[in-house]
Specification:
This protein is α/β, with parallel strands linked by helices. It has a single domain, classed as 3-Layer(aba) Sandwich (Rossmann fold), CATH 3.40.50.150. 27% of the residues lie in helices and 22% in strands. Strand 2, helix 2 and strand 3 form a beta-alpha-beta unit. The chain binds S-adenosylmethionine. The site of S-adenosylmethionine (SAM) has 21 residues, from strand 2.
């Protein structure tokens, strides 16, 4: 699967510009290795990190050992129900969804 991970400098800028910098739970619905969520991590006590790719998921578990990790398709309604069933009040959701370049 083609993957583009957020450069750390850009992730820091996004955190600086975010209206929500602190809270209880943050979720990343397509977390990759966690590069986007990383600068937010210390300001949130709880992290829900999702990825569909098994390799990214295993790296995510190493990078964020204390997070709730979910392997699966975050666009799937049943999967969203699974997140809801964690019964956590989510303060912030971040996502850098997959995309492709089209050659014209
Ligand atoms: C563009 S990368 C961004 C990764 C990370 N959030 C970042 O910014 O560095 C997109 C990620 O979404 C994952 N992904 C793609 N489709 C997904 C889906 N339907 N549900 C969950 N994750 C998905 C990919 O495996 C990949 O790790």
């Amino acid at each position: 699967m083609k993957q583009f991970f957020t450069p750390s400098q850009l992730a820091r800028i996004l955190r600086e510009e975010s209206p929500c910098k602190h809270g209880h739970t943050i979720v990343d619905l397509a977390a990759g290795h966690g590069d986007l969520v990383h600068p937010f991590a210390n300001s949130f006590s709880d992290h829900i990190l999702v990825d569909i790719d098994e390799e990214a998921y295993s790296i995510l578990k190493k990078n964020f050992p204390n997070a709730s990790h979910l392997l699966g398709d975050s666009t799937d309604q049943e999967f969203i129900t699974k997140i809801k069933n964690l019964n956590k009040k989510i303060d912030l959701s971040v996502c850098n969804p997959p995309f492709n370049y089209r050659n014209r």
